[in-house]
Specification:
Keywords: Lyase, Pyridoxal phosphate. This protein is α/β, with parallel strands linked by helices. It folds into three domains: 33 residues, no CATH class; 188 residues, Rossmann fold, CATH 3.40.50.1100; 90 residues, Rossmann fold, CATH 3.40.50.1100. 32% of the residues lie in helices and 17% in strands. Strand 11, helix 8 and strand 12 form a beta-alpha-beta unit. The N and C termini lie far apart (46 Å).
Length: 361
């Protein structure tokens, strides 16, 4: 059985609650008795993230009604000590399908008829697509300046798009206000911890594909949806004796919006500047305290991607055959810059989070 626990006051809530946060204002975490990762429990006959459904803390009986074959993206060698995980090779062309598939399945399980969500584009597109599969009405808020191609994709799934004249954080505030006033289910990838049950699969796949986990993992972080899932899965592998040591996690932020860089316990108050790395341009990450106060037992470091390095990094990846969006290029740029001034031991892996055509203006 699973339920939610408030990270603020510790109060429990049923997993079928329609509230996106506790009465005290705290965000929920999932309390689940699902087994930890065990290769013997992986469904080898299923070729989607739901091969790992035994490790998800929700009812997955109807997953075939929702799944579009998301996951199992390739880990490709790129240079001597670097792997690229092709997470843009998803049904909606970004890694957000991992979490959206599980979250929308949960919404269908508990009888939700309409959802609201805010996004810089990728998460909104993923939620819209899976809601279309589930027969759930969907409205997505995006900030002004979002890539028109991402907006077109969201609309193509039958979702209503509200383009809000404000920053990414102001857009989220407006969306939550409407969800509360109209009592619409807030299917948000930041607030709802069910999303992380899907992003755990990122690490499960790396382990299955390589038989190990690279020594360094670079993860772009805005709200931390991939980071939180990855940390949970790495903890499962380590505690289960499947890996001997935890990898170092590099938390990548863009230099023009880096509230977690040099932060102590809580995010720094910053004034975000326009950036090509729109996917991580989050000035007020809602789970900042959870990210910064993580119980992850391995080493972590927050590093910056220089704005001027993003386009050259994108071009370099494209010349190697990988055409990615700017936020992904920022992660590669940060990796290259870090290597220039540090002796990076062992091999590394970077997620190619989004396809390039989605972010071309």
């Amino acid at each position: 059985m699973s339920d939610f626990i408030c990270t603020g006051c510790g109060k429990h809530a049923p997993i079928d609650t329609l509230s996106y946060k506790c009465d005290c204002g705290g965000l929920y975490k999932l309390n689940s008795d699902a087994p930890k990762f065990n290769p013997a429990l992986v469904d080898q006959s299923e070729f989607s993230i739901f091969r790992y459904r035994r490790f998800m803390g929700i009812d997955t009986a109807k997953f075939r009604e929702i799944s579009m074959g998301e996951g199992l993206t390739t880990s490709v060698k790129f240079g001597e000590n670097l792997y690229l995980k092709l997470d843009y090779a998803m049904p909606t062309l970004s890694f957000k399908d991992r979490g959206a598939a599980v979250l929308v399945l949960h919404a269908k399980n508990i009888g939700v008829k309409k959802v609201l969500q805010d996004s810089s584009g990728n998460a909104g597109n993923a939620v819209a697509a899976y809601c279309a599969r589930a027969g759930i009405e969907c409205e997505i808020y995006v900030p002004k300046g979002t890539s028109p191609k991402k907006i077109d994709m969201i609309k193509s799934h039958g979702a209503h798009v509200t383009v809000f004249d404000g920053s990414r954080d102001e857009t989220a505030d407006a969306c939550r206000k409407k969800a509360a006033q109209e009592q619409i289910y807030y299917a948000n990838h930041v607030y709802n911890p069910i999303f992380y049950e899907g992003t755990k699969s990122y690490i499960y796949e790396i382990y299955e594909q390589l038989g190990r986990v690279p020594r360094n993992i670079f993860i772009p972080v805005g709200n931390g949806t991939l980071l939180l899932g990855a940390q949970a899965a790495l903890g499962e592998l380590y505690e289960g004796g499947l890996i001997e040591a935890l990898p170092k996690i590099f938390i990548v932020q863009g230099e023009r919006c880096a509230p977690l860089f040099d932060a102590k316990g809580a995010a720094r108050e910053i004034e975000p500047q326009p950036t090509l790395a729109e996917g991580i341009a989050i000035a007020r990450p809602m789970r900042a305290r959870e990210i910064l106060g993580s119980s992850y037992a391995g080493e972590r470091e927050v590093i910056l991607a220089s704005e001027g390095d993003i386009l050259p990094a994108r071009a370099a990846l494209a010349r190697g055959g990988f055409y990615v969006e700017h936020t992904t290029a920022a992660t590669y740029a940060a990796y290259l810059r870090y290597k220039e001034s540090h002796d990076l031991q062992g091999d590394s892996i970077i997620p190619l989070c989004g396809a390039g055509l989605k972010s071309d203006h």
